[in-house]
Write a structure and sequence with these properties.
The chain has 342 residues and is of the alpha/beta class. It has two domains: 159 residues, ATPase, nucleotide binding domain (Nucleotidyltransferase, domain 5); 172 residues, ATPase, nucleotide binding domain (Nucleotidyltransferase, domain 5), CATH 3.30.420. Helix content is 42%, strand content 19%. The mean pLDDT is 96. It is built from eleven helices and eleven strands. The strands form two sheets. Strands 10-9-6-7-8-11 form a six-stranded mixed beta sheet, with helices on both faces. It has a five-stranded mixed beta sheet with strand order 3-2-1-4-5, with helices on both faces. Helix 5 packs across helix 6, helix 6 crosses helix 8 and helix 8 packs parallel to helix 9. The structure holds adenosine monophosphate and magnesium ion (MG). Adenosine monophosphate binds next to helix 5 and helix 6. The site of adenosine monophosphate has 19 residues, from helix 5 and helix 6.
Length: 342
């Protein structure tokens, strides 16, 4: 079964061909980072224009790498939400055109759900429901109970910034560049001492039976620290402390989610999972709590990519779910849904 995946929700134009939801035949990602980094963030108009310019080229490259022809495709899976509306429309229109040209079934994908399915690429196991979905990206920070295919219930969300967004904003405060995550990780590695924490523990008074995230307080605290100590800033130290404080919260909340739900499988996804230190901490937590915690095999599969969209599409397709050409891309984040009930 061959799936064509299309992903244009934010600042990556991606097309992939995936076999049986498992084997990546090609997964081409064009990242617009260079086009946005001078603005320290994503400019929506630039993003949608760039998708429009690049999408055919990305498709041609993916098709060539896969050594397939369009008639070999069994289904099309396209991200329709959430994301930047102008960006989503480009992928959506590409999918509709393809569908009309080649008469292939189409599946509308919520790319937040797709992040968890990135973990099933090149992995033998099938999804084992229910699992906890930990999403740590530039736009989202949440824990879901994934009860089944297309069946998500949100357990915890951020009260303000997403974690990746906080990394990006902090890198901007420190004038380190964009995106902030990889730069902050690299700088943190240059710091080798351990000292008293520079930042207070986040949500330290949150009752034990509650799960939540918040990253705007630490960002403000860091901003004031930088203003006060302008002449003697130890950048690796600040990055290290910032990273440790953010990840301490993630680990504390994930541990609570495991305890409260007693669900022993976690599928983690999103750009922040590219962070090596976070991966180590998750491995430690998995051992301590006798839980299986999975994250994507490589950096490409952490951030937005079309292979994960094709994989989730595969599971929908074999469960006889398809949509028609009237689907409407939407920027809206729907936190809990049950696709087969509606
Ligand atoms: P996504 O929104 O899933 O496409 O992921 C992009 C986000 O992941 C951005 O906010 C990045 O700063 C963040 N990110 C990427 N690599 C890392 C890393 N190594 N450590 C922390 N955050 C990262
Ligand atoms: Mg994403």
């Amino acid at each position: 079964m061959i799936g064509l995946g299309i992903e244009t929700s934010c600042d990556e134009t991606s097309i992939a061909f995936v076999e049986d939801g498992k084997k990546i035949l090609s997964n081409v990602v064009y990242s617009q980072i260079e086009e946005h980094n001078k603005f320290y963030g994503i400019v929506p108009e630039i993003a949608s224009r760039s998708h429009l310019i690049k999408i055919n080229e990305v498709y041609e490259k993916a098709l060539e790498e896969s050594k397939l022809s369009p008639k070999d495709i069994d289904y099309i899976a396209v991200t329709v939400q959430p994301g930047l509306i102008g960006s989503l429309l480009i992928g959506g229109q590409f999918a509709k055109t393809f569908c009309i040209l080649y008469k292939k079934p189409i599946i509308d994908i919520n790319h937040l759900e797709a992040h968890f399915y990135a973990n099933f690429l090149e992995r033998k196991e099938e999804p084992n429901y229910p699992f906890l979905g930990l999403l740590l990206s530039g736009g989202n920070t949440a824990i879901y109970v994934v009860e089944g295919l297309g069946k998500l219930k949100i357990l915890a969300n951020t009260q303000d910034d997403a974690i990746g967004e906080a990394f990006d904003k902090v890198a901007s405060i420190l004038e380190l560049g964009y995106p902030g995550g990889p730069i902050i990780e690299k700088k943190s590695k240059e710091y080798s001492n351990t000292t008293n924490s520079l930042f207070p523990k986040i949500l330290k008074d949150l009752p034990e039976n509650q799960i939540s995230f918040s990253f705007s307080g630490i960002k403000t605290s860091l901003l004031y620290y930088v203003r006060k100590n302008q002449s003697k800033l130890d950048i690796p130290y600040i990055c290290y402390e910032f990273q440790e404080t953010c990840f301490e919260l993630v680990l504390r909340m994930l541990k609570r989610a495991i305890q409260i739900t007693n669900i022993k499988t976690v599928e983690a996804g999103g750009g922040v999972l590219a962070n090596q230190r976070l991966r180590e901490l998750l491995d430690e937590l998995a051992k301590k709590t006798h839980t299986k915690i999975y994250y994507p095999k490589n950096k490409i599969l952490c951030t937005d990519n079309a292979a994960m969209v094709a994989t989730l599409g595969y599971y929908y397709y074999i469960n006889h779910y398809t949509t028609d050409l009237n689907f409407v891309p939407s920027s809206k984040i729907i936190n809990s849904y049950s696709k087969f009930d509606s």
